[in-house]
Amino acid sequence: MQKLKIVTIGGGSSYTPELMEGMIKRYAAFPVTEICLVDIPDGAEKLAIVGKMAQRMWDSSPYDVKVTTTLDRRAALKDADFVTTQFRVGLLEARIKDERIPLSYGIMGQETNGPGGLFKALRTIPVILDIVQDMKDVCPNAWLINFTNPSGMVTEAIIRYGHWDKVIGLCNVPVNAMMKEPKLIDKTTGELIFEFAGLNHFHWHRVSDAHGHDVTPDIIEAMYHKDDGIPKNIHKVPFIKEQLLDMNLIPCGYHRYYYRAEEMLAHSIEEYNTIGTRAQQVKQIEHELFELYKDPNLDHKPEQLSKRGGAYYSDAACEAMMSIYSNKNTCMVVSTVNRGAVPDLPADCVVEVSANLSGKGALPLAFGHLEAPEAGWLQLMKNMELGICKAAVTGNYGLLLNTVFMNPLVASGATAKQVVDELLLAHAKYLPQFADTIAKLKADHVTVKDPVVNELLATGK
Amino acid sequence: MQKLKIVTIGGGSSYTPELMEGMIKRYAAFPVTEICLVDIPDGAEKLAIVGKMAQRMWDSSPYDVKVTTTLDRRAALKDADFVTTQFRVGLLEARIKDERIPLSYGIMGQETNGPGGLFKALRTIPVILDIVQDMKDVCPNAWLINFTNPSGMVTEAIIRYGHWDKVIGLCNVPVNAMMKEPKLIDKTTGELIFEFAGLNHFHWHRVSDAHGHDVTPDIIEAMYHKDDGIPKNIHKVPFIKEQLLDMNLIPCGYHRYYYRAEEMLAHSIEEYNTIGTRAQQVKQIEHELFELYKDPNLDHKPEQLSKRGGAYYSDAACEAMMSIYSNKNTCMVVSTVNRGAVPDLPADCVVEVSANLSGKGALPLAFGHLEAPEAGWLQLMKNMELGICKAAVTGNYGLLLNTVFMNPLVASGATAKQVVDELLLAHAKYLPQFADTIAKLKADHVTVKDPVVNELLATGK
Amino acid sequence: MQKLKIVTIGGGSSYTPELMEGMIKRYAAFPVTEICLVDIPDGAEKLAIVGKMAQRMWDSSPYDVKVTTTLDRRAALKDADFVTTQFRVGLLEARIKDERIPLSYGIMGQETNGPGGLFKALRTIPVILDIVQDMKDVCPNAWLINFTNPSGMVTEAIIRYGHWDKVIGLCNVPVNAMMKEPKLIDKTTGELIFEFAGLNHFHWHRVSDAHGHDVTPDIIEAMYHKDDGIPKNIHKVPFIKEQLLDMNLIPCGYHRYYYRAEEMLAHSIEEYNTIGTRAQQVKQIEHELFELYKDPNLDHKPEQLSKRGGAYYSDAACEAMMSIYSNKNTCMVVSTVNRGAVPDLPADCVVEVSANLSGKGALPLAFGHLEAPEAGWLQLMKNMELGICKAAVTGNYGLLLNTVFMNPLVASGATAKQVVDELLLAHAKYLPQFADTIAKLKADHVTVKDPVVNELLATGK
Amino acid sequence: MQKLKIVTIGGGSSYTPELMEGMIKRYAAFPVTEICLVDIPDGAEKLAIVGKMAQRMWDSSPYDVKVTTTLDRRAALKDADFVTTQFRVGLLEARIKDERIPLSYGIMGQETNGPGGLFKALRTIPVILDIVQDMKDVCPNAWLINFTNPSGMVTEAIIRYGHWDKVIGLCNVPVNAMMKEPKLIDKTTGELIFEFAGLNHFHWHRVSDAHGHDVTPDIIEAMYHKDDGIPKNIHKVPFIKEQLLDMNLIPCGYHRYYYRAEEMLAHSIEEYNTIGTRAQQVKQIEHELFELYKDPNLDHKPEQLSKRGGAYYSDAACEAMMSIYSNKNTCMVVSTVNRGAVPDLPADCVVEVSANLSGKGALPLAFGHLEAPEAGWLQLMKNMELGICKAAVTGNYGLLLNTVFMNPLVASGATAKQVVDELLLAHAKYLPQFADTIAKLKADHVTVKDPVVNELLATGK
User: Fold this and answer.
1) Residue A322 contacts residue A28 (beta carbons within 8 Å)
2) Domain span at residue A420?
3) C402–D261: do the CB atoms touch at under 8 Å?
4) Taking CB atoms and an 8 Å cutoff, what residues of chain A touch B372?
5) What is the ipTM of this complex?
């Protein structure tokens, strides 16, 4: 039997059981021989819990696969065939900061492509570039399957600054759409043709039926009568119908932040003031999940994981790995190099598009030009992504301000600058590239306002 | 002597005396033989006042030029050599609506490329396309010099939908920058090389000295110590210095709305709640100006006009006409077809750039690619312009919403939609292309909230 | 059972039996109910022979399908589901002229993208636009599957000037490559990943194995040791190996005309002077084929058809129709709208690329930028195609000259102009758009030099 | 008085007197203080003659300027303000090889963008990159004014591989056009507006009169009745009128090689067989010029220099230097970075276009898209240039073949490969980057056929 080693960075994540389930389900076509879960010292406890849980899942399967855990990333990566990344630099506490600091000033945090997500990119990119460096040394033939958010920006940095092409960026949002939308018009997924184009958490799609007829308007219409498949972690405010019918494209759930900015912000502020932001809620869910995972009798993915918000993320990762491994030419939606597929953006940047996945990786399907409004939004957001990737590797403060101000969720000005400054301070531990700026902020006695964040900082988090 | 006929649409404007002054000053190179001021019936009184004032200015000059006034636009256009447009559909009352309706919901109005400006475009484009149709019929060789705002979108519509290429869009903002910035670094305009690129009221420029050294950083630095030449009609909040130094470009004054959105909005809301919005202030200034113009002894442009905010607009128009007429190859900043000059935008759209002006019109100077943040902003704004031009000719409500939501000054959602709906209602008289939508809004009992606007509507304005 | 009607224009072609075979083979997934073969009066005899032969093929199959023949194209098209086009305006005699007139002056004729092919485009485009007009009227939901050459230019004209999007342009060259190349490196087609990009008869491809490793160099190497799959109708001169290794792409067989122009011309001149050009040879093969087809006992495609040069053309057509009909998402190489797939060309032009074929038609796979030499060749050839399409619909003689001179097989100048003039004269019957130019040529006593062409003309062909 | 030092590399050229004349004429605006002529040891004798002649020219002027000569390039470059390059690697003997080797096989040599010119690029680029390296060290603020041919490719290499932006590529062809064409339609240069776009020796232009009316067709028409200003060194075969009228652009003289390839080749072959190729003729002219230059009484540019073919080259260089030095904003046609001016080519490549010349260097005027045939030619030729620049720095033989075969004057195949091989052999001394390939050719006993070239080689040239 041929070796097939999977290394999962951030292996102590609560998502790991879904990943195991995905691999068990696909074992025939994707006969894993070794799984290594890697985490950092701060995650050692969770890693131990998840590692045992994962092993129990395999033990209860018909397959003899060994799951190992380690804190030595470089050793783990040795001879890997696939590396999946699902780590979170600074853990959920960092996400709490990403969300609460902006909201403490009435600005949306949003941890993917909102201001919070931009700081997540600043923290994550240096780490992922380190991982890529390790991979060049010890597993140069491996594929990197990234689902650490912001997945699009991280994938962009891996390719642009890490010069590593064997990478696929993944997301569960398109998977969800393709599973839920057919039901809205009494079809099955196989009967419909989906074409996605855009960026991670900022893509649109159109849908045709098996005869090539555009059924996008039918799905839009149905979205207002039936459940429209908004991801668990996004507030359920509907898009404005006239707008959707005009664009004749279906936005992704995260577009709510941009097309219904007012309501999304109001909802986030309400949560901020009451039950806590999403990260705080997730922390509670995670706590419950880990309690479950500790149960030595639990040997399958518990139902509660679906509340976590990332359902199908790991399943998509397994599907992608299997398609690459077995050269299966599956059509999936992934973050990959544009190559012209979205001609409104440069051919060398990362986009999220429908693509054929095979042993060669992702070959994107050309989508053609978007109409003016979508093209404009997309170009803004991609350039924001490019700006933040550059800021992440250069530590340029002026560029950071310039880029954050591009984000349509941010009203530029003194308050926004204060938010940027507080985020820099609060994440100081994970932003060595901004050390000089942060020192200057401290010297200027800039302080964080949000009490929850201050509590975290007080305990060294 | 050769005929040289100038027709000014919106001739009853308070700017007309500056236009006269500009022509008198340039008479040697631009020997006007006939000036016809055109206006609409609602502007008849102002037209009469301005017409007499204009004639007095010429009479006190060494030149024998006759100024005529008329309400018959088509007759006036006959055999024109240059047509200048400075009209305002719906007069200042419409601008009051553009500004107050958004502000009544805490959203910036901004009458150029903000939400207010988008409605100004919706009102103006059908009228300008009518004028172009007249020009095709009665003065097919004339040049159209547009300084009706939003000048970039109006110029785009003239070319894209009017299929009329002999047009120059003008603005006084670059003129002001080129006059004031040299002094900041103890130079003269002639010693510096300015390169502008972008859109009307959304352009950046870089500056080199006579030896080709980039002095952009010096000017930025000096802007924080000396008067930075912010136009009269824009609140004087400074740009954030780190941001400017990173981009190493000088934004235009209107960029404040986008780079200091918070402060500009706060200032506008304060004015809204106290002394009235800019349009209301301008109305008072205009009233005073017209009182002055009535003085039968006044035969030169009064000093007070400079408070109006559009200083050098008309002078730029005269300079442009003279350059075209005498094939002078002057370098000016104008709105014209891109032709590749700004490679981040399509070659066939209208941009505002440095250009050589000659008998052929404007030949733009190629600027090269912008960095990611500027490219992103620019592409967003240009696509917004393209969206609004299309909405103006189609009356498509979904596209209108989709386009207004692109504007970074607008937080999308129910309130923004309400603002759009109220603006449609308030401008009903000037938006025939949206008649069906407006009828539906009325049927749905949508009403305008702002009391000042309601007063205007009550009096049929 | 649902209706599934196929109409074949140029149904009297010798290729029709392969088309029948392809449909019989795929009957389960593509249950044809009606086949109508259409031809022109000059082809009535062949149509009758082929019609009977086709019916015999179905009769010897397990399926009950009726083949009808007609000269009334518009009536035939009524309610068609798929229309295939394989007609040749002016029959083989026209191809003889396309080949012999240039060769009579030592210039390559080449009936696809050489000068001969450009004239084939001029003759074919007006006819195909007529067909499209009929389809709009009587079968607006049908798909047009074109394999009339020059397939790329014809497809371009259908979309650009016919405004008909439901079209697929087909060619057998990629099919052949994908069948023969795997064997060169002891692989099967299914084990390899092919990526094609370019134009019809002017595309390159790269090949990866199932692990994503680039095996293009291995195939290139093997091409010099084993049979390299050059199409029957192309002289077997090998590519220069250093050139191929540098580009690391595999050109198509037709690239020989451009990469080994000297040898291909020498070979064509030799045939011109001895056994006759390819068209003359084909005429003999066709004669033999029709003798076979007349045999009332023949009820399957005869082996001899493979000598004809177009093997797999019809099979590719059947595969394409089946994939569209049954929404099968097959990966094929087709001529379709670029949509960005080849970013060195505009997104709205027709390219030949790997694509997913489904009920929506072709969704091309983005290839990314080509290296400078390939990009340059491609841009030249595509612009030549665009020039000839425009000349075909406008009848502009200056544009025709300008376009023909672009072709790298043509040394521009007086002789090339003479060749253009003689081709116009010789094809006068089929080039009504150039009637004025042709009249002028006749008035100037321009005459055709080649004796074989003159003989054809003398007999009214 | 401020220092203004000019260094001329290849100072021993026969063109130097024109350069002196240009500087003397412009002394008021361009007050040169020091001129240093540099050459290589093989050119020492000519350098001495020219150096004295140059000094005599200044001595007979009202200005006190010292001309020095040296073989120490690096020392000469110290503190230069402007460096002009007019050297010829391998002297005229190399050009003889560039022309005769291709012609010995019936292929055009053409020393600018024909096959000969491609080899000139291969020889020149390494040398110019060396010069740039010296300039970075000893005169980092100097401007490089290149008129060594092929000027476009050399300028491209300086920017792309030398990373040196302060460079202007010059050519006399546009100057000639702008001087001669106005007379054809009874106008003066100042009354017309010229817009050039394309590449060095491969550009087109359109012309408007002072009223903006397109007079391109008038000039085309007149070219067939009057002297059309074909450069001295190009055979006078007229363009085909219908072709020009269709494109409505005026090609440059060198376009004859591409639009009348047949006649140009025939003429070159005739010269090859009789009076010798252009290089051989030039050698004779040069000999005569140097005899004249030796005359100690000659103190002005002799009339005979105009026969040399490059008239106005040096004058253009002086005009460019003066415009940069005095920040004059002159409109000239130069090779510079595209920046979008020709949107059919990438923004970062070098083009030859109309540009404003000032202290900042060249700011190109945006031309807009070309029609399909011109776009196709241009894209082919630019990609050929990019290929040859890369081959010049990498010494890649496969890329060299691939690039040479792109040239429309070359019929690809065995003979063209033989020509490439012979050129490599004949230029071995100047092509160290191809040393391995050349060694292999020698091992394979490849030899040069042309007897004149063999004679040169026998004498070590």
Assistant:
1) no
2) 395-458
3) no
4) 383-384, 386-387, 390, 403
5) 0.96
